[in-house]
Design a protein that fits this description.
With 387 residues, the chain is an alpha/beta fold. The chain contains 13 helices and 14 strands. The longest helix has 20 residues.
Length: 387
């Protein structure tokens, strides 16, 4: 039995990438600045080599056992879809389109006709700020809120008392069908909310509607080989339900970690791909380093439970998809290197994985570990982990 458990710490970058200046992200470092400001206690990540990863600012554990390094993103962009696709083997030469001035008026007119409702907003905004500004108007007038960000997203917020989730998901499905070509954003996102004016909160009913992957991914390779290809959290949304044999769309880190542990208790050959979103959604975008640190501590405390369920031929990988430095200006993602922490039972010491040229090295490594031939023009580090 050979299994790979690939877990994405959403938005937990570890220092500005060489091209960060092109994205307005000079000086960013999500993990390093959270450590500097909030001083999280992360002994289990440290035992896997966290302190040896350049940029994390965490004290090295001299007894660390694992593989430690970082990855550079070669795809254009700094969003969830781009990062996950690249670590699954797909590199994008052209970034998904963004709309800093909102979506074109003719598109909005056509969209309103398609869903049968006027919409409000149509501008870049943070999710919490847009609810403070327009949440009551949307609820009162039954007008969904459309907004975007520095990422390639078309987000729709609606109060659950006015528009039940399934209706909001219908609005998103229509938007996804319409947003193609030059308007082909990476994701359409449903953002249901509840509450009263001044106390609106987003619910766990978020759903992402992504473009289908543009090529064959690690998930496809695993599934086509007759192995289990399991997704936890928003993985199914990011890959538009392709390449998976089973998925648990758990919401929030506690539920996602429990779903991961449940899969770890099963016997199977293949891949379990998990996204832990809270560091991004709850703390990164809200620029809250203390909450960010506590989210990392929660994950760290669960690592012993994960290790206890690892088999002799299993591989564990922790990485990230981009940054979202909670000490930086604005509320958007940040262009960063991402950490790479690996572990399996037969490791005896620390393996320096260095700086990988692309996130796709992760896909190549997972494929080699599972005995698959695919490499996606990337370099596997599986042999280094086995040395």
């Amino acid at each position: 039995m050979k299994r790979v458990f690939l877990t994405v710490l959403d938005a937990v970058g570890c220092g500005e990438a060489p091209d960060s200046h092109e994205y307005g992200d000079v000086g960013v470092n999500t993990w390093g600045h959270v450590v500097d400001v909030a001083h999280p206690n992360l002994p289990n990540f440290a035992a896997m080599g966290l302190g040896q990863v350049e940029g994390t600012h965490y004290p090295p554990d001299p007894k660390a056992v694992g593989g430690a390094g970082r990855c550079r993103e070669v795809s254009a962009g700094k969003d969830t879809t781009t990062g996950h696709w690249e670590m699954a083997g797909l590199k994008l030469e052209k970034a998904f389109p963004t709309f800093p001035n909102g979506f074109p008026a003719d598109f909005i007119d056509a969209y309103e006709k398609a869903i049968g409702h006027k919409v409000i907003g149509n501008k870049p905004a943070s999710g919490t700020a847009i609810l403070e500004e327009l949440g009551e108007q949307s609820r009162r007038d039954a007008t969904p809120i459309v907004y975007t960000s520095a990422d390639s997203v078309f987000q729709i917020a609606a109060h659950e008392d006015v528009f039940p989730r399934e209706e909001l998901y219908r609005f998103c499905t229509i938007a996804r069908e319409m947003l193609q070509g030059d308007l082909g954003v990476g994701r359409v996102i449903a953002r249901p909310y509840i509450g009263e004016e001044g106390h609106f909160t987003r619910t766990a009913g978020r759903r992402d509607f992504s473009l289908p992957p543009i090529g064959r991914t690690l998930l496809d390779a695993v599934k086509e080989a007759g192995m289990a290809s399991l997704g936890v959290g928003k993985i199914e949304d990011i890959f538009e339900h392709t390449g998976l044999t089973e998925s648990n769309h758990a919401a929030g880190n506690p539920a996602c970690i429990e779903a991961l542990l449940d899969y770890m208790k099963r016997d199977f050959d293949g891949l379990c791909f998990t996204n832990l979103v809270d560091t991004d959604m709850l703390w990164g975008h809200r620029r809250d380093p203390k909450g960010f640190a506590e989210a990392l501590e929660y994950i760290d405390a669960k690592i012993p439970d994960m290790l206890a369920l690892m088999g002799e031929d299993d591989l564990m990988i922790f990485t990230a998809d981009h940054g979202c430095d909670p000490t930086y200006t604005g509320t958007d993602h940040t262009r960063e290197y991402v950490p790479l922490l690996c572990w399996h039972k037969k490791m005896k010491g620390l393996v320096d994985l260095g700086t990988r040229a692309t996130y796709a090295d992760i896909a190549a490594t997972c494929a080699e570990w599972l005995g698959l031939p695919d490499r996606w023009n990337a370099t596997s580090f599986a042999k280094e982990l086995k040395a």
